[in-house]
Amino acid sequence: DTAVSQTPKYLVTQMGNDKSIKCEQNLGHDTMYWYKQDSKKFLKIMFSYNNKELIINETVPNRFSPKSPDKAHLNLHINSLELGDSAVYFCASSHSYRFSNQPQHFGDGTRLSIL
Amino acid sequence: QKEVEQDPGPLSVPEGAIVSLNCTYSNSAFQYFMWYRQYSRKGPELLMYTYSSGNKEDGRFTAQVDKSSKYISLFIRDSQPSDSATYLCAMSLYSGGGADGLTFGKGTHLIIQP
Predict the structure, then answer these.
(1) Residue A107: closest CA among chain B residues belongs to which residue?
(2) CA distance linking residue B76 with residue A81, whole number of Å
(3) pLDDT truncated to tens, each residue of chain A (115 aa)?
(4) Among positive and negative, which fits the CA dihedral A91, A92, A93, A99?
(5) How far apart are the first and last CA of chain A?
(6) What is the distance of C-alpha A32 from the center of its chain?
(7) How many angstroms separate the Cα of A71 from the Cα of each of A2, A112, B3?
(8) CB pair distance less than 8 Å for A106 and B43
(9) C-alpha atoms less than 13 angstroms from C-alpha of A73 in its C-beta half-sphere
(10) Which residue in the set B42, B94, B104 is minimally distant from A43, CB to CB?
C-alpha cells in the first residue's frame, strides 16, 4: 500500500486554466504539506496543514488554494495557471509537525507542465 | 546566502568506492538532520534521520553531524550502481518537521559506475 499517494502523476495543460492535484495519506498522520520542486531540483515548502487547519502559508500567490477535507487528504487547486507554475509538486505527511519519531514521508510527485 | 548549501554535482565514482556527500547550513537553530534519496521521477525517500551532533550508522550508510561547524555528511560504503540517485540533505527545528516544513539542500546527483 502506498503511504502517500498523489493524483495525477502528470498534468499537461494550457496557460490560464484551473487545475487540481489530490493527495491522500494512509499513515494516520496529523500533518500534511505541499512542496514545490522547480527545474533546478530545489524543494521548497508551500503549505502546512495540521488536522485540517492551515498552519503555514509561505510566500505563495493566492492563485494556489489548498483544501483539506479531512486529515488524510490535502488537495491543491491552482487558478489561472502561468508558465512559471511548471514544476513537480510533492505532498508529504508527518505524525505531528512538532514532535514525531519520524520526519516526513513524501509522495512521488505530480509533474505539472504549462504550455 | 542560502540557508542550506549542497554541491549539485554530478559526482561520479566507481563501484565499491566510499562516497562522501555533505551540506553546510547557516541556521544554528536546526536540531534535526535528514538525508533523503530521490530516484528519477520519484519522491524523496528517507535514508537517515539524526538529532544533534554525532554519528549514526545504518548498514552501508553513516550520517555525521557537526553542529559547531554547521556541517553534515553522509558516507556510503561499498557503493553500488543502485545507489545512483540524487541525495538531498534536509533539516528542521522540530522532529516532525515543524510548521515551516523541512529546509532542503539542492541535492547532489551521484553516479556509481559499474
Answers:
(1) B43
(2) 41
(3) 669 999 999 999 999 999 999 999 999 999 999 999 988 778 999 999 988 888 878 888 999 999 999 999 999 999 999 999 999 999 999 888 777 667 789 999 999 999 9
(4) negative
(5) 34
(6) 8
(7) 17, 24, 30
(8) yes
(9) 9
(10) B104
> B104 contacts in A (CB within 8 Å)?
42-44
User: Facing residues of A31 across strands?
Assistant: A50, A94
CB B49 within 8 A of CB B82: no
Length of chain A: 115
Other C-beta atoms closer than 10 Å to the C-beta of A80 total 11
Determine the Cα–Cα distance for residues B74 and B62; give it in Å rounded to an integer: 6
Q: Which residue has the cell 503549505?
A: A47
Query: Three-state secondary structure along A17-34?
Result: CCEEEEEEECCCCCEEEE
Burial class (CB in 10 A: 0-12, 13-18, 19+), A16: exposed
User: Distance (Å, rounded) from C-alpha B75 to C-alpha B58?
Assistant: 10
Which contacts of B66-70 are long-range, i.e. CB under 8 A and separated by 24 or more positions?
Answer: B67/B28, B69/B24, B70/B24, B70/B25, B70/B26, B70/B28
